Task: inverse folding
């Protein structure tokens, strides 16, 4: 009973440790808006107002006096919450950039929320998978320990050597059933019965 209680306590301790490891790793890898990589599809999900601001970010070349094209509209590169850089026209105001940034952030948050469910299921599978393995290993260790304990309690059988018998081979010699200097007992009994029939 004590052995079972000891193994049970060990399994509980290992289970608690593994639960803590899975919880910490799951929290650190939890999908968040700032960790979602940029997807060009996000730009297609923006509102018409925000999309119009993004579409106007392509600079148009204008010819110079000598006929060569020069870039008069230098685009603005603005970093988003996930560190993706979007281009804006040079004349874009801070309010317009904030509008696009807020809508882009909402798209990132929606994508993170969509990835949270599968992430949680993966954590549950990762948490449950080692538990049967630990139970099987614990039962196997308990059976091996019980077998060794029974072997030591019952004693390890010693090799049989000629001239000795019994539980202790060194304690009791073999006793001959019919010593060499005496005739077998069955001959004496047969002779007594034969004499009785003659009488």
Result:
């Amino acid at each position: 009973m004590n052995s079972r209680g000891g193994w049970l306590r060990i399994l509980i301790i290992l289970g608690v440790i593994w639960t803590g490891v899975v919880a910490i790793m799951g929290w650190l890898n939890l999908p968040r808006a700032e960790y979602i990589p940029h997807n060009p599809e996000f730009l297609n999900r923006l509102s018409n107002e925000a999309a119009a601001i993004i579409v106007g970010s392509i600079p148009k070349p204008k010819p110079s006096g000598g006929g060569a094209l020069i870039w008069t509209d230098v685009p603005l590169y603005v970093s988003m919450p996930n560190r993706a850089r979007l281009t804006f026209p040079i004349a874009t105001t801070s309010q317009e950039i904030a509008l696009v940034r807020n809508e882009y952030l909402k798209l990132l948050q929606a994508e993170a929320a969509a990835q949270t469910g599968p992430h949680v299921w993966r954590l549950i599978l990762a948490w449950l998978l080692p538990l049967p393995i630990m139970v099987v290993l614990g039962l196997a260790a308990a059976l091996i320990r019980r077998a060794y304990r029974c072997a030591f309690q019952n004693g390890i059988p010693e090799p049989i050597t000629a001239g000795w018998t019994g539980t202790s081979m060194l304690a009791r010699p073999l006793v001959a059933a019919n010593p060499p200097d005496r005739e077998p007992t069955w001959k004496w009994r047969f002779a007594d019965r034969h004499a009785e029939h003659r009488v």
Observations:
- The chain has one domain: 2-153.
